[in-house]
Amino acid sequence: MSQYSWATCPQPPVRAQVDNLVATLQQMLSNDLIGVYLHGSLAMGCFNPQRSDIDLLVVTHNSMTVETKRDIVQYLLMCSLLSCPIEISFLVQKDIHPFRHPLPYGLHYSESWREQYTQALANGTWRAWNDEQKYDNDLAAHITITRARGICLSGTPTQEVFPAVPPAIYAASILGDFNDANTERQQMPVYFTLNACRVLAYLREEHIYSKDEGGVWGLRILPPELHGVVEQALETYRGNLMDAPFDQTALSQFAHYMDTLFLRL
């Protein structure tokens, strides 16, 4: 399975899915829309349509009404999985300037929210979506990656919209993600392994890498006894190897090594 970036993305279905989403958001948000921004694997050139999400950030001038959120969620429930899963966060300009951590967000969608949103639309609890401000520790990482390697799909250029994230906060954000993934490494060994490598690449050398690039970097610097786990993760991520159980002893050894390193950095 070949990987690709947005620039080399073939025509439908992935490009059509993204283009239709952007056009729909432009129509729904109208003049309140500042921009739609692509980050993640499709921006960084390692998108695998068999296993990758389409990662997006949306910035608006003002907070969305609860009715607008309802309409957007209804659309996302329809369009996510037409080709690939969508993960998207909606931010308000005034909430991200000046930068703070964790950042507030107006709406978030990923496939892990599908059941919750479906139930909320059915039982009417969507009407309370604006009753509470929500925050996301991962947004510091998403914004850093978007500024460094993201793509503006519509609206104001990236550097004019997103604030610079202090390096210490970015490091804290990606370490938090590592710790979360570590607790679930048996269920998601590919993500855990490659993400751990790219976290280490930033902490050691300040590289902002994709998961694929992180794995390649890891093979250059990690001890040979850890290479088997990284190689399996890379080949599975690239679609060259079928998903198969990881050797749990080797995976635990890899996790312990990374844990110990991060505690020293």
Entry summary:
The chain has 265 residues and is an alpha+beta fold. It has helices spanning 14-29, 41-44, 66-79, 93-96, 114-123, 139-149, 158-161, 167-183, 189-205, 211-221, 227-237, 248-264; strands at 33-39, 54-60, 86-92, 103-105, 107-109, 134-136, 151-155. The chain has twelve helices and seven strands.
Structure keywords:
265 residues; alpha+beta; 2 domains; five-stranded mixed sheet; two-stranded antiparallel sheet; 12 helices; 13% strand; globular
Major β-sheet annotation: 5 strands, mixed
Strand portion: 5-15%
Q: In whole angstroms, how far apart are the ends? A: 36 Å
Radius of gyration: 19 Å
Strand order, sheet with most strands: 5-3-2-1-7
Which geometry do the CA atoms define? globular
What's the helix-strand series?
HEHEHEHEEHEHEHHHHHH
Helix tally equals 12
* Secondary structure tally: strands: 7
| Total tally of structural domains | 2
> In percent, how helical is the residue content?
40-55%
Q: Report the structural category.
A: alpha+beta
Mean pLDDT equals 96
Enumerate the spans where pLDDT stays under 50 for 5 or more consecutive residues: none
